[in-house]
């Protein structure tokens, strides 16, 4: 009788261990801290004066949490911030070409900042015991802020003068689709790779001597981030 109980206990323990190993890719709660790059494109990275934003590849940081209420479906919350520096060299050249009376120009510029706070639905598909591929559709707030810029100009037969372009901000609703892959090691620790698309036309107000001016600018970038994951 005792050997049978021992065998049953060992079999039961083996089943539990097997289920635990298989469940690495099916944790119910996934939390991650992420970092990566923001790749601008379209008018956001374009170099046409009075239309484009001259944005360069920048840095993105963020975090997210997903609770899977079903084996394949879950709800997610996400936060990220991207800082895209301005291509000051190209902007200076374009400004000089645009004004024949401008002899010298120096520009100091902050980065273009975008903050995204979203919630949405995620779906996942497991490949093996530890690797998961997932897709998501998120929606929420996009807050974009144009850079503060300081100009030093020298015109023909005039000395150097300074003027500034103050920062402006706009908030808008945005839909953010994304895909990614995640690998969970033992005890629920893992890594993941995300790719999200953020795109929206924004309207930035500027105060001028003639009243308010509104500039429309496209904010479009692909955000690729690596995350450190904890699964529960």
Q: What is the second-level CATH architecture?
A: Beta Barrel
Number of helices: 2
Mean pLDDT: 90
Overall tally of structural domains: 1
CATH class: Mainly Beta
DSSP strand count? 11
| Helical content class | 10-25%
Q: What is the alpha-carbon Rg in Å?
A: 25 Å
Distance between the termini: 39 Å
Q: How large is the share of residues in beta strands?
A: over 45%
One letter per element, helices H and strands E, the order comes to HEEEHEEEEEEEE
- Across the major sheet, the strand order is 1-2-3-5-6-9-10-11
Describe this structure in words.
It is a single chain. With 232 residues, the protein is mainly beta. The chain has a single domain (27-231), classed as Porin. The protein contains two helices and eleven strands; from the N terminus they run αβββαββββββββ. The protein has helices spanning 2-22, 88-98, and strands spanning 29-40, 58-67, 73-84, 102-109, 112-127, 131-145, 149-155, 160-165, 169-184, 189-208, 211-231. 28% of the residues are buried.
């Amino acid at each position: 009788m005792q050997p049978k109980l021992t065998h049953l206990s060992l079999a039961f323990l083996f089943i539990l261990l097997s289920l635990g190993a298989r469940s690495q890719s099916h944790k119910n709660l996934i939390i991650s801290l992420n970092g990566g790059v923001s790749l601008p494109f379209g008018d956001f990275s374009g170099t046409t004066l009075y239309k484009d934003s001259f944005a360069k590849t920048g840095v993105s940081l963020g975090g997210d949490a997903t609770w899977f209420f079903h084996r394949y479906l879950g709800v997610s919350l996400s936060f990220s911030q991207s800082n895209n520096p301005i291509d000051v060299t190209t902007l200076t050249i374009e400004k000089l070409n645009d004004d024949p009376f401008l002899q010298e120009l120096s520009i100091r510029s902050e980065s273009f900042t975008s903050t995204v706070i979203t919630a949405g639905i995620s779906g996942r598909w497991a490949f093996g015991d530890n690797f998961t591929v997932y897709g998501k559709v998120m929606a929420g707030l996009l807050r974009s802020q144009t850079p503060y810029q300081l100009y030093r100009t020298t015109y023909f037969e005039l000395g150097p003068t300074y003027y500034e372009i103050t920062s402006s901000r706009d908030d808008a609703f945005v839909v953010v689709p994304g895909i990614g892959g995640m690998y969970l090691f033992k005890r629920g620790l893992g890594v993941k790779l995300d790719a999200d698309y953020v795109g929206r036309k924004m309207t930035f107000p500027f105060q001028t001597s003639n009243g308010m001016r509104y500039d429309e600018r496209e904010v479009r970038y692909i955000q690729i981030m690596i995350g450190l994951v904890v699964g529960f």
